Model the fold of this input.
Amino acid sequence: MKKHVTAAVIAIALLGGLSAYIYMLSNNKITFGYNVGYQPTQPIPFSHKLHSGQMGVDCKFCHTGVASTRHASVPSLNVCMNCHNNLAITDASGNESPHITKLKEAYNNNKPIEWQKVNLLPDHVKFNHAPHTLAGKQCNECHGPIETMAEVYQWSSLSMGFCVNCHRKPENNAPLNCSTCHY
Ligand code: HEC
Ligand code: HEC
Ligand code: HEC
Ligand code: HEC
Ligand code: HEC
Done:
């Protein structure tokens, strides 16, 4: 008797949980993992699909810090202006693209574009791009197929499990002690 009651309670709890989960998923209240899929609206719709995928500009041309510093870094506008200074992007009636106008105005007034951060670890976690790049880890192992993204989104969970699972692989020979990744 008791067993049946317990089983029924568990079944109801599971069903309730499942339907709440489906409700939240279908209403975009949660995504898988932590912030997987997080995609803030950027001030200028910069497309990696176009610049990296179609034009083949190397990641390191813009993200210059990947092999030497903690931060990959987002490029300053003079990197963009290498090309956009002398590149007319107009619509059929000859009007300049409003995004390019915004880019040039910011550049000429020495104002940065306020790019919104996509991937963000909590403050208690240490991360550094340099050792990963030097160990031959590729951008897509953590960021996914960026060169197909018209707008960047967070591809991996950036959970502790995500980091530790890779550090644990024998071929990586990466440290696992807590102080490697925590302050
Ligand atoms: C022409 C310059 C340029 C090139 C080339 C480029 N990026 Fe970016 N990248 C940017 C800019 C600008 C941003 C900030 C705006 C945004 O998030 O879309 C950015 C953002 C990112 C972000 C998100 C940063 C965050 O806030 O978490 C990742 C990850 C990234 N790039 C990876 C790559 C990879 C991998 C490649 C090569 C396949 C690449 N980028 C090539 C300019 C570039
Ligand atoms: C081992 C995983 C990993 C690899 C490999 C990796 N990244 Fe990242 N990247 C991250 C994490 C984690 C963050 C968020 C860091 C934070 O919040 O401090 C990040 C942040 C970024 C950012 C935002 C600015 C910054 O530096 O915080 C850019 C741009 C970026 N990565 C580009 C790249 C590019 C380009 C490559 C390949 C050359 C690359 N990443 C390789 C994990 C990785
Ligand atoms: C290697 C040269 C090059 C660099 C560097 C470059 N771009 Fe571009 N960009 C282009 C080309 C080429 C196009 C497409 C032109 C076309 O569609 O005719 C383009 C298109 C664009 C567009 C689309 C405009 C529209 O409305 O169609 C935006 C926005 C843009 N770039 C922003 C940026 C930003 C921001 C940076 C710096 C982070 C940057 N670009 C760096 C060459 C470059
Ligand atoms: C794709 C595999 C992979 C992933 C994912 C990964 N790492 Fe690593 N990590 C490595 C490798 C390989 C090294 C370099 C080991 C060496 O050469 O010493 C490393 C080194 C490090 C180091 C430097 C250790 C030292 O003191 O030299 C830190 C810190 C670190 N990782 C933190 C993180 C964090 C935090 C994450 C998750 C956000 C993460 N890693 C995700 C493979 C990975
Ligand atoms: C390879 C990197 C890495 C190692 C090694 C690591 N952590 Fe973490 N840890 C993370 C990351 C990234 C997060 C943040 C994401 C998350 O909460 O899952 C985290 C989160 C945590 C949290 C959750 C904090 C919160 O705000 O909820 C605790 C507790 C924690 N770690 C303890 C440990 C302990 C104890 C060890 C050693 C046995 C350890 N970690 C080793 C990367 C690491």
